[in-house]
Specification:
It is a single chain. Helices cover about 70% and strands about 0% of the residues. By secondary structure, it is an all-alpha fold. It has one domain. α1 runs antiparallel to α2 and α3 runs antiparallel to α4. The protein is elongated, with a radius of gyration of 18 Å. The chain starts with 10 loop residues before the first helix and ends in a 7-residue tail after the last helix.
């Protein structure tokens, strides 16, 4: 039998906290390096996060919600500099209206990613575990 890879279940929480700190500590416009932070967090998430098989339907709902929320957050961190540059080109000073517009666009993007991610994770977790035979 092959060895099972042990993954850190705290990876989801760690990436979520790092993403929130990354967003809340930045001042001003989104910078291209913010996308690098998002990519690194995404790679950590893909490398170390594996949801456990749920023991009940409610736990699969909550696991799917948490995973989808964090995946959406990481993808929004990656997309933020591009949306910011699209809404208010880098040659112009940022305005409050442009900043608010970028925030709403990121919220809408996150919500769409959350819904899609939830569906994917939820139905993946509901699938029966493969039997070894």
């Amino acid at each position: 039998m092959g060895d099972r890879v042990q993954v850190d279940q705290a990876a989801l929480a760690g990436v979520a906290v790092a993403g929130i700190i990354s967003i809340s500590s930045a001042e001003g416009r989104y910078e291209p390096f913010d996308a690098v932070v998002g990519i690194v967090l995404g790679l950590l998430l893909v490398a170390f996060y594996r949801p456990k098989r749920p023991t009940s339907p409610p736990s699969s709902v909550f696991q799917s919600m948490a995973g989808a929320a964090v995946f959406g957050l990481v993808l929004c961190i990656v997309a933020a500099p591009m949306l910011d540059a699209y809404v208010a080109p880098l040659t112009h000073e940022s305005s409050q209206a442009g900043s608010t517009r970028v925030s709403w666009m990121l919220f809408n993007l996150w919500f769409c990613l959350f819904v899609v991610g939830f569906d994917l994770l939820f139905f993946t977790l509901l699938r029966p575990a493969p039997s070894s035979g």
